[in-house]
Amino acid sequence: MPGNSFGKIFRLTSFGASHDPWIGGVIDGCPAALRLDREAIQVEMDRRRPGGNPLGTARNEADRVELISGVLDGTTLGTPIALLIANKDARPQDYDHLKDTFRPGHADRSWEQKYGVRDHRGGGRSSARETAVRVAAGAIARQLIATAGMRVNAFVTQVGEARLEAAYDTLDLSATWNEPVRCPDAATAKRMTEAIETVRAEGDTVGGIITCVVSGMPPGLGEPVFDKLHADLARAMLGINAAKGFQLGEGFAAAAMRGSAYNDALIADDTGAVTTSTNHSGGIQGGISNGENIVFDVAFRPVSTLMKEQRTVDREGRSVVLEGKGRHDPCVVPRAVPIVEAMTCLVLADHWLRQRTARL
Question: Does the global pTM surpass 0.85?
Answer without folding.
Answer: yes
